[in-house]
Amino acid sequence: MTGDDLDPLIHVPTRLRIVATLAALPDGDTLSFTRLQDMIGLTPGNLIIHLRKLEDADYISSEKTRNGAVSITTVALTGHGRTALGTYTQALRDLLGGL
Amino acid sequence: MTYTPDTTAAGNGGNFEPQQAAALLDQATVQARRTFTPGPPLLWVYRAFFVLVAFGGYWLSVRGRQDPYSAPPGGLLAVIFALVAINIGWSTWALKRAGAGVSGPAQRKRQAWIGVMLVAWVAAYAVTLPLYHASASHPAWALYPASAPLMIVGLAGAATSAARRDWPTAGTTLAIAIIAAVAGFGGPAGAWLIMGIGLCAVCLGTAAFKVWQQHRSVVRP
After folding, report:
1. pLDDT over 90 at B141, yes or no
2. Which of A1, A31, A78 to mutate to test the interface with B (most CBs of B within 10 A)?
3. How far apart are CA B213 and CA B211, in angstroms?
4. CB B101 to CB A28 under 8 A?
5. What is the mean pLDDT of chain B?
6. The domain at A3-97 falls in which architecture?
7. Which of A51, A52, A92, A94 is most worth mutating to test chain B (most B CB atoms within 10 A of its CB)?
8. pTM for this one?
């Protein structure tokens, strides 16, 4: 196994941090966009780009709700995303074990 | 190993080595676990100090006395109230911080659990009023506040935590209930000492478990 076998969608520093952060939440729980942004330390535009890529692959889901004049966006890791992170972690283990 | 971002790789994963990825995965996971943990290890260390001072202080004030059925001295009561206030304030802050921006079924279950625990605390101490009204005997007065409230709260916590499959919390609260039950056999003075030492050990054990839980690697077994 080589580094090329690692899921290219997750094997990017920023997206790896996003996925690892969301994976620390219990299954089914969601995190607000602003809290995730605080934790990751990205600009909103930059974070949106990475989230969109993950959402296109069905690794995360996002939902926009309106509370009066305020709109809140929440994101969560999907079951598919959790499995992908598990596979990625196992691949890392295999790679590091072989080094 | 701490991951330091390489600006050439950041964002696109250009030269992102597996070792760097493993370090970053662990680093991000530890940070997220710390952020989402409602009971941080340091708070449990404080609780260990708090129970040792509160229960141990009361034991020091009644040990060796022929009539140990009195209220604690005013100075000790003031210290206990101050420590309780700090515990409530710190716990509330930690809960709010851990739950900020988080929503979903686990969050709702946690809020319901907090509600059950508040009811258990109130119910455990509310029983003292009927006891007083019924002119309960001195031994009952001395033993009830030392062991019964935490036995009730511990059992309620263990049952509700087990229902939501939160096994670490179920273990901690069950240990509290067992210590409270054992303390009941320690007599009117000894019960306070058993509670102080036993609860201190449980709190320190929980703090150590939380540290391990937060820092265990997801990549390296």
Report:
1. no
2. A31
3. 5
4. no
5. 87
6. Orthogonal Bundle (1.10)
7. A92
8. 0.84
